[in-house]
Each structure stands twice: as C-alpha cells, then as structure tokens.
Amino acid sequence: MNKIILDMDPGVDDAQGIMVALSIPTVQVIGITCCHGNVPLDNVLKNTLRILKVCKRLDIPVYRGCGKPLLGRKIHASDYHGKDGLGDVPDPDAPGLDLLQGRKAPQALVKMIKENPGEVTLVATAPLTNLAVAIQLDPSLPKKLKALYIMGGNTQSRGNTTVCGEFNFVADPEAAYIVLDRYTCPTYIAPWEFTCKNSLPWSFCDGWLSAQTEKAVFMKKISTFSMQKATTEDYKEQQTTEGCGFNSCDTYAIAAAVDDTFLLESEEVAVTVELEGTHTRGMMVVDYMELLKKKHKAFIMKKVDLEKLKQLLINALK
User: Would residue 9 show up in a list of annotated catalytic residues for this protein?
Assistant: First the structure.
C-alpha cells in the first residue's frame, strides 16, 4: 500500500488531485494537512471536508495548519478559485470544523512520518509553510520520508502571480527556501511552466465533467468559475504558449506520487529560491551551472503520460 500525506490549500485543482488520490485502490491517504494559500485557512479547512464528504471519506484525518507565511504578507488566489476557493457554490450541508483533528498540521506531519518511517510520500500543493515548520520541529524528518512531491516554483522565470514568481512559492518564499534546502529526501517538483505545457484539451474537460455521477456534478459546479476565468485572454497570456488548455496544476504532483509510470521525463538539478529580488522574490532558481555547490538535487518534471492523466481524472469522478 502506497501511503501518502497531502499538504494542501483547496482550491479547485487541489480538489481534483484529492479525488485522483482517493480513487486509486493501492493508495492510502493517511492524513491531509491544510495551509493558507488559495484562500484563507478556514476556507481551506471547510473545502477539504466538503471534498472528503463527496468522496465519502470523512474518515481521513484533517489537520489545521499555518494560517500565514513565515515572514511575508498573506496573499490568496480567490480571484481564480472563487472567494470561498471552490467556485462560490453554496453548500448548506457542508461538514463542520468540529471534524478537524486536535493536533496542528506541523506536529501531525512529524507524528505521521515518524510512525511510518520510510513508507510515506508527502505531496505538497500549497505554500510550503507547514513543511518548513515541521522540519524545525524535527530536523531528521526528511530521513524518514520515502519522497516529497511539490507543485510549485518555475524554471523559466515566468510567473503567474508576480513577474517572475509562481503562486505557492511567492505566497511563502522563506518556507520554500527552507524546504528546498533541508528536505534531502528524493524530491520531485512540478513547476508552473511544466503544467502549462502538459495541459489537456478543453474538449476533454467538457466530456470529463459530463459524467452523471455525484462526484462529477460536484466537480462541474465548483470548476465553472475557474474554468471561465481560465478561458479569458488575460489568463491565457499568463500561460506558456505551448499550452493554453485545461491545467489541473496540483494533480500533476499527486499523479506522479501515486503512479510511478506517469512521469516520463525529468531532469535532476539543484534548486533554491530567491528571497531578496525586487522582481524575483519567490522565484525558483535552477542551478544548471552548479554554482551553488548543493549536494541535494531535485527532479524537475518535464514530460508526463497525458493519456494516463486523462484516465486518472476519469476514474476520479466514478
């Protein structure tokens, strides 16, 4: 059984990723830790529980994480995901926050990983604040992890939030710096430009959401706002010219973590994060010249099996 922990900030693409993870029989999601990000933390928590309810998996423990970045100011992406993070679709029957675990997310990460040494894959699709705090609590944490998968950062200084910065890293640059520096376990990164280049045709998305299941109806409702946003000319200009289709950013990292055959091509290179630049704060720095002299290198995703991605997404809504 493939044990994974999801560190998330749902978000529509997080919802898609959760559903993919929960649809694979060989995957055991042992916990979900929540972080500030796409929307404020309370919305993130509510959204996570809403998604689990639709999947009939409220048995999975959910933990309240960090509500703000380590040092910088809070930013959110409600202009894309909706003010509530799930398309501003009312849900009068949403689960209450009383279902949350009492333990805080960074402490929960330490405990879950410690109890399953060498068995846990951690997938982080939010700002990396929880992970940065967790390694402060237990510096030996990476030695106990099987692998770390991150959706975040960029490789061509092409931003989607600032001129040169991707949202998750810009939302907490210090946390991203700490994680890329101290998490020395096998690390895989799905950066912004990669997800754009590997986007799916909108025609697939139309068919995908037409399935007559409870999950598909839910997904169509929460996706409408962001998909309308994604098809505007302003948003298309933010994506790379190679890909302007349906881009479920966070799902790429989750799919790679749960299916070894999904990732077809990657490059191993040292990375860090710029903390001080006027225009480049939060930008991921890719050290092709090996000037940083870092022993630990990350695997940057380059190419994936898009047919397999389609099937994972289809299975997720059954």
Answer: yes
